[in-house]
Write a structure and sequence with these properties.
Number of strands of chain A: 21
Largest sheet of chain A: 5 strands, mixed, barrel
Distance between the termini of chain A: 36 Å
Number of domains of chain A: 2
Strand order of the largest sheet of chain A: 9-10-13-11-12
Oligomer: homodimer
Largest interface: A-B, 38 and 38 residues
Helix content of chain A: 25-40%
Shape of chain A: elongated
Chain lengths: 402, 402
C-alpha cells in the first residue's frame, strides 16, 4: 500500500473502502476542509464564482463533444435509469458546464466568466495503487474560464498560474513544486502542470533547479528546450506528482456546443475557454508523502486538523485531569483548535499516537509539570521541547496557533 | 414542472441537468451552504462528529445486510469496475458505516459515537417530478448513532428530535413543520418524520393543530390514536413533505455486521443504532414552495444568499454609479453580504429580478435619492418602503443584516 494511505489510515484520517475509494474520518475531513478553503480563497480572489455541477451526466451532452465512447474517454463509470437511459458519472465537467453556460452567455457583456466547483469525480482507473494520490472517486477543484478573446484568456491564464503558485506555497509545498511545461493540445503549444517532487509520484519530469521550471518527459525535445531557454545539461530527471494543471481549451468545446456571443461590433464569435484543476485529496496525500517523518505525519499549521494536541498524563488523585479539563475549556473558549487526549493509557502510547497524528504543537500536563507549575510544550516538526508557564503558553498560542 | 424548480431555475439558483438532477449555481450554492451550516451547528452541539463516506459502494458490504438485490432496495444505481466487479452508488450509508465502525468500536469505552456527513445520495427514482424536493442525486445529512444500551439510545434519540425542531425553526419552517408519528420497523413502535405542510408535498398526514403533532396515514389506527392521546375528530388531513426523519435501527445492522462491544461486566453485546436524516436540498425546495409569493422567492434572513440587494438606477452623468460603487465597497468592507446590480437596464426590469431572487433587503440608489441625500430601503417580505439617510442605513444593517 502507498505510504500516504498507510500513514493516513493508521493515524485515523481516512478509511479504505475499495482500491482508490477512501472515506474521510473527522481528522481527515478537517484537513480536507482546510485545503479546500485555501484553494477557495485564491479562486475567489481572481474572480471565481463557485457552483456545484452533478455527478450524473446526460449521455447526449457527451455525444455532442464526441467523448461518450469508451474508446475516446477510457475512465468512464456508466449506469442507467430504470427506463434503460444510459448515464455517465462525471470524470470531468467541460461538457456539462459549456452546455449550461449557453443559458448565461449571449453578449460580450456577459464575459468574462470564471466558474469553479469542488466536486466529486469518478474515474474508472484500471490501477489505483497510490492511496489518495490517485482515486477512482475523489474531490476535484475545477475552474473553467470563458473569455471573449485570446488576449483576455491569456491574461487570466497567467493569473491562475500565479494563484496556483500561491496555493502550493501556502500549503507548504512551494519549494518542491515546479511549474512544468506539458503538451498543449490543438489550441496552444503548452499546458502547464504543477508537479511536486516525490519518489511516490507517477510522473517523470526534467527539472532545472536554478530556473525553477521543469519539462514533462512527454514534450522534452530540442525545440522545447530552445523555447524555454533551458539547457539539457542543467536538467535532472525526478519523480513527481501532478498536483495541479492548467489548460487552454480554445474553442474545442464552444465550437461543439455552439457557445457563441455577440461581440461589440455585432459579429458572432465563439467563446475562448480554459480549464484549471487541483485535487485537494491528492494534495493531502502528497503532503503526507513529503512532509512526514519516521514517527508519522507532520502537518503544516495552515492545514493541520488541530493546532494543539493537549495530553493529560493522568495521576491517581485526578489532579491532572481536573487541571487539564479546565485548561482545555480555556483554550477552546479563546478560539484555539485543540485535540484533547485524556485517555487512560501509558505516556509512551499517547506520545506515539501524537507523533503519528502530527499536530504542530503538543502540550503535556502531568503530576510533575503540575508540581513545577508549568506545562511541557513540544514542536512536532523540530522536536524542540520547553517547559513554560500558563502565561507563556497563552502568549505562544496567540502568536503561533491562531 | 414543480413550482420550486420553476422559480429557482428562473431566478438563477439551480440548473436542471436531467429529471431529478440539478446543478447549483452561485446563488443556489450560497443558500445550500447556509442551510448546511445551520444543520452542522446543531449536529455538533449534540456531539456529532463529521465524516464523509463514499458514493461508490462495495457489493459485499450490501450483501451482508441483504440489501444488494434490486428487489429489496429498488432505487439502486449500479456500475462496474473494468474487471467487471459490480459496485453500487450509495442510496444510504448504514451498511458502509457499520462496517467501518468495526475498526473503531470494541469496548464500552468507545461508546456512544455519533457520526454524521453531508453526502451525495443517488436514488434511481422512477418518477422525479418534484424539483429539488425529490432528486435522483442530492445531498443528504445523515447522522448515525452507536449506543451501548436502549436507554442511552433513547436519550440521544430525544436529543436529535429537539435538535431537528431547532433546525426547522431556525430555517423559518418551524410553525408549519410537524413531528409526525410513522411506522417504526422491527425495533421500535414508531419512527418520527418531520413533515412540513405544503400542497406540493407527496405525503398525506393527519394533523392535530392544537397538540402540534401529526400521524402519518400509514399508521393511522385506533390503537395509535389511543397511544398518542389524540382524537380522530381533532385530526385534519393535509399534504406535506418529509423534510427530516429519525429512526431507531436497534441491532438490525450491528447483528448483520457483528458490530459488538465488550461491556463493563465483560460480556459481549451488540451496539444499538439509530439513523437520522435531513435533505438540505429538499429543505431549500420546500422553502421555495411555502415562503415565496406571486413576485418570486422570499428567503428567510438566515439562509438568504445575500442580505442586501443593492440596485443602482444609472443616470447619464455616472453620478449614481460612482456613489453606489463606493457604497457597495463600504458595505462589503464592514462585512455585509451584498448583491450589487449595476446593470444598464430599466428600473422595472431590475425590480422584477430583485423580487424574483428574494433577498431580504433592497437598497435603491437613483438620481432622485441622490438629490434628497437618502437611499430607498425596501423589505422584500412586508413590501415596506422607507427613505433613509446613510447613517440610518448603517444602523439598520447592523441591527438586521449582520
Amino acid at each position: 500500500m502507498a505510504q500516504n494511505a498507510k500513514l493516513l489510515i493508521r493515524a485515523g484520517f481516512i478509511h479504505k473502502e475499495i482500491a482508490g475509494v477512501y472515506s474521510y474520518l473527522p481528522l481527515g475531513l478537517r484537513v480536507m476542509e482546510k485545503i479546500v478553503n485555501v484553494i477557495r480563497e485564491e479562486m475567489n480572489a481572481i474572480g471565481g464564482q463557485e457552483i456545484t455541477l452533478t455527478a450524473l451526466q446526460d449521455k447526449k451532452v457527451w455525444e455532442t463533444s464526441g467523448r461518450w465512447d469508451d474508446s475516446v474517454l477510457d475512465v468512464w463509470f456508466k449506469t442507467k435509469l430504470k427506463n434503460d437511459t444510459e448515464l455517465g458519472l462525471g470524470t470531468t465537467h467541460e461538457e456539462q458546464l459549456t452546455a449550461l453556460m449557453k443559458d448565461y452567455i449571449a453578449s460580450y457583456r456577459d464575459l468574462p466568466r470564471y466558474v469553479y466547483q469542488f466536486q466529486t469525480k469518478f474515474r474508472n482507473e484500471t490501477r489505483a495503487k497510490s492511496g489518495i494520490m490517485r482515486g477512482r472517486e475523489f474531490v476535484m477543484k475545477d475552474l473553467y474560464s470563458f473569455s471573449s478573446d485570446q488576449e483576455s484568456h491569456d491574461t487570466f491564464y497567467e493569473k491562475v498560474k500565479l494563484a496556483y503558485s500561491r496555493i502550493f506555497a501556502r500549503l507548504g509545498l512551494g519549494d518542491r513544486t515546479y511549474v512544468t511545461f506539458a503538451s498543449g493540445g490543438s489550441f496552444s503549444k503548452y499546458s502547464h502542470e504543477f508537479q511536486t517532487l516525490t519518489e511516490a509520484g507517477e510522473d517523470s519530469i526534467f527539472v532545472d533547479e536554478k530556473k525553477k521550471i521543469a519539462v514533462n518527459k512527454e514534450v522534452l525535445t530540442e525545440e522545447v528546450l530552445k523555447d524555454l531557454g533551458v539547457k539539457r545539461a542543467d536538467l535532472v530527471e525526478k519523480k513527481a506528482v501532478e498536483v495541479g494543471n492548467i489548460f487552454s481549451l480554445g474553442t474545442r468545446f464552444s465550437d461543439a456546443f455552439e457557445l457563441n456571443f455577440v461581440a461589440q461590433d455585432g459579429s458572432k464569435k465563439p467563446v475562448i475557454m480554459g480549464s484549471y484543476g487541483i485535487g485537494p485529496g491528492r494534495v493531502m496525500g502528497t503532503i503526507a508523502e513529503v512532509l512526514s517523518d519516521k514517527d508519522g505525519l507532520v502537518w503544516p499549521e495552515v492545514i493541520a486538523p488541530f493546532k494543539i494536541h493537549l495530553i493529560a498524563l493522568l495521576d491517581k488523585e485526578g489532579k491532572v485531569q481536573a487541571y487539564t479539563d479546565a485548561l482545555y475549556q480555556k483554550l477552546v473558549t479563546q478560539g484555539s483548535e485543540v485535540l484533547y487526549d485524556d485517555r487512560d493509557l501509558r505516556a509512551g502510547e499517547k506520545f506515539a499516537d501524537a507523533d503519528l497524528i502530527g499536530i504542530p504543537y503538543r502540550v503535556i500536563v502531568s503530576d510533575k509539570t503540575l508540581a513545577e507549575k508549568v506545562v511541557e510544550f513540544k514542536d512536532r516538526k523540530t522536536g524542540e521541547v520547553s517547559k513554560i508557564g500558563e502565561a507563556e503558553l497563552q502568549k505562544r498560542l496567540l502568536e503561533k496557533a491562531k
